[in-house]
């Protein structure tokens, strides 16, 4: 009797306590991991963290609508997007001192390969060379070399430049890339097939040609790689922590474990 992510989504959509309890136990740890990465300075701010989780508690949210074809990974990918949007909402989204938009970045990096663009894009997502090496299965030294090359091109295309320009503009660039969806864009499934080793870019020139020129797909691929890594080794929230978040979200106490419900039905007792 496994209670799946898909069932959780149905329960959250119907605003049932069981769904929210599962969300808290299994996915607050994912939120904590993402907060530690994107908002390290906020990682110990309990009030901010709670406000974030409250902002995500919306039964009508698209987060709980479509979960095919890979329910949990699709869900976490969407959770990540909504989490960052909620954080922007709380913090008011400051503009960086030196701005670069997606068009200018795309023009500067136009001759780079797909992998080089992904490597550079992960810098906007705040991944250091070592972490990027894990996400893209690449030597950190190779990551550094690619980033040097990309930085030179970007520097050459701007009046003002600083080393942190990609990280500083990460949120704006991420929003712009997410909005730049086209009818030819690849599905999450295609990217997961690549990440799971069921498909390679080789021999798929038409796909590669699209992705090379599409920052929506570069971003989407990097985010799916991130999801795979974030889910690795994440452990459920401890019971006292889960109870704290249930109180914050106004979710009734622990739902009956699935086996008890099943046993109750089978024996006629409740
Ligand atoms: Zn695309």
Please tag this protein with its features.
mainly alpha
Gross morphology is globular
Poorly predicted ranges (pLDDT <50, ≥5 residues)?
A: 266-270
Average residue-wise pLDDT: 89
What is the radius of gyration? Answer: 21 Å
Q: What's the total number of strands?
A: 0
Helix content: 55-70%
Question: Could you characterize what this model shows?
Answer:
Helices cover 65% and strands 0% of the residues. The protein is mostly helical and 270 residues long. It contains 15 helices and no strands.
Topology record:
Blueprint: H1 5-13, H2 17-38, H3 46-56, H4 71-91, H5 102-108, H6 114-124, H7 129-136, H8 140-157, H9 165-168, H10 170-179, H11 188-195, H12 205-212, H13 215-231, H14 239-249, H15 258-267
Helix pairs in contact: 1-2, 2-4, 2-14, 3-4, 4-13, 6-8, 6-13, 7-8, 10-13, 11-13
Concise synopsis of the structure shown:
The protein has 15 helices and no strands. By secondary structure, the protein is mostly helical.
């Amino acid at each position: 009797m496994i209670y799946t992510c898909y069932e959780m989504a149905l329960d959250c959509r119907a605003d049932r306590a069981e769904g929210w309890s599962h969300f808290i136990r299994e996915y607050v740890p994912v939120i904590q991991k993402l907060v530690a990465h994107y908002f390290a300075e906020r990682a110990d701010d309990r009030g901010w963290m709670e406000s974030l989780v409250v902002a995500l508690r919306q039964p009508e949210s698209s987060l709980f609508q479509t979960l095919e074809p890979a329910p949990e990974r699709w869900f976490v990918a969407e959770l990540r997007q909504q989490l960052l949007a909620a954080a922007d909402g709380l913090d008011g989204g400051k503009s960086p001192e030196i701005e670069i938009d997606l068009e200018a970045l795309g023009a500067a990096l136009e001759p780079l390969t797909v992998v080089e663009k992904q490597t550079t894009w992960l810098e906007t997502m705040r991944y250091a060379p070592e972490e990027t090496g894990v996400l893209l299965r690449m030597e950190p030294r190779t990551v550094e070399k690619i980033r040097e090359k990309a930085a030179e091109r970007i520097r050459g295309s701007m009046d003002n430049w600083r080393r942190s320009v990609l990280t500083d503009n990460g949120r704006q660039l991420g929003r712009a890339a997410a909005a730049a969806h086209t009818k030819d864009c690849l599905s999450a499934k295609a990217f997961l097939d690549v990440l799971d080793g069921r498909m390679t870019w080789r021999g798929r020139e038409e796909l590669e040609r699209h992705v090379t020129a599409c920052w929506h797909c570069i971003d989407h691929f990097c985010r799916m790689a991130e999801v795979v890594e974030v889910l690795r080794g994440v452990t459920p929230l401890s019971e006292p922590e889960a109870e704290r978040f249930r109180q914050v979200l106004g979710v009734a106490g622990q739902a009956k474990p699935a086996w008890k419900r099943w046993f109750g039905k089978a024996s006629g007792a409740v």
